[in-house]
Amino acid sequence: MHCPFCRYTDSRVIDSRTADDGTAIRRRRQCPECNRRFTTVETTSLSVVKRSGATEPFSRSKVLVGVRKACQGRPVTDDDLARLAQRVEETIRAQGSAEVDANEVGLAVLGPLRELDEVAYLRFASVYQGFDSLEDFESAITLLRAEREPTGQEPDSADLAVPPAYGEMAGS
Ligand SMILES: [Zn+2]
């Protein structure tokens, strides 16, 4: 591999370790010419077969186009999105095939997106699964509620109570 600093045509591997859950190998390299160090990441090539039948290389940023749209106005950070894209890629690579349907990529987004933000999940699912009626949303929401991890308590009725009106707080 060429040195990215001086373009020398060779480099030496000084360290290799698996990364991203075993789906990649990260190599630390050193240029014998300028002695600078750089890192390369080796993964199997992964292609996505689009609905049209055309294939293109898997790209995390393409995964994020639709997800980011679904997250508009939601409390989701760029870091959250980067982690989500990484999980999607790991899920797909763990299936072990070099080629996946675009559909499977969408499917792999649903789980992590649901954990991240339920509203964004519903938006994404409505596009991806082609919701075309309120009933579709209702059944998705019912499913969400049913599968929701028990988080302890429903909001306490005291939290929902209307605070005392200003005049009543003064005491008498
Ligand atoms: Zn160099």
Strand sequence of the main sheet, in spatial order? 1-2-3
What amount of the residues lies in strands?
15-25%
Mean pLDDT: 85
The total of helices stands at 7
- What percent of residues adopt helix (DSSP H or I)? 40-55%
Q: What form results from the Cα inertia axes?
A: elongated
User: Unreliable stretches, pLDDT < 50, 5 or more residues?
Assistant: 155-164
Distance between the termini: 82 Å
Secondary structure tally: strands: 6
Order of helices and strands: EEEEEHHEHHHHH
What composes the largest sheet?
3 strands, antiparallel
Task: Enumerate the distinct ligands.
Answer: zinc ion
Class from helix and strand fractions: alpha+beta
What topology does this entry show?
Blueprint: E1 12-19, E2 24-30, E3 37-43, E4 47-49, E5 55-57, H1 60-70, H2 78-94, E6 99-101, H3 102-116, H4 118-128, H5 134-147, H6 157-160, H7 166-169
Parallel strand pairs: 4-6
Antiparallel strand pairs: 1-2, 2-3, 4-5
Helix pairs in contact: 1-2, 1-4, 2-3, 3-4
Bound molecules: zinc ion (ZN).
